[in-house]
Amino acid sequence: MFLNTLCLGLKKVRVIIVKKRMSGSGVAPENARARHIPECVKDIIRKHIKMFPAYVSHYSRAHTQNVYQNPDLSIAKMFRLYQDYCKEQSVLPRNEALYRKSFVEEFNLSFKKPKNDTCGKCDRYELVLKFSKDVEKENKIHLELAKLSYEEKRKDKLLIKANCNCITMSFDLQKCLSTPLLMSGAAFYE
Fold this sequence. Notes:
- The chain has 8 helices and 3 strands, in the order αααββααβααα.
- By secondary structure, the protein is mainly alpha-helical.
- Among the domains are: 36-118, no CATH class; 120-160.
């Protein structure tokens, strides 16, 4: 009769009793699902996600805004590293669901290996430019040379279409070597 009067199920009453006993006081704790997550907690999660190097595909940069993480990573691995990071910082780590939500909703990241490799110089300039503007001129020159080479390639393609007796060849000699597989958490932050 009591359960029907309050429109409660037996399971709900049991959960409330268990939570009341666990709290030590005579009152069950507030529902944690509706609680606001402080911005400082979200900032720690954002900071941790930003610690992982992200790469833009060099050759398809004009066609997409996708940014890639190391394909050996996953959100679950990053969360385990986040827990270690929180221990080092003496901060209470939050749950994986909050970490995952922040990763998915706030960052345009993918773990899929990009179909096109990245240019080592562009990657280096991008990292250095985050901390200093010393290489800004060199970066612009490098990008201009890349643009000129693409223009020459486009002209060669047009030449072949216009003249069947012509042969052109194009080679990509800037193959990037992939980083060895590193499972150490500290290696991801270096």
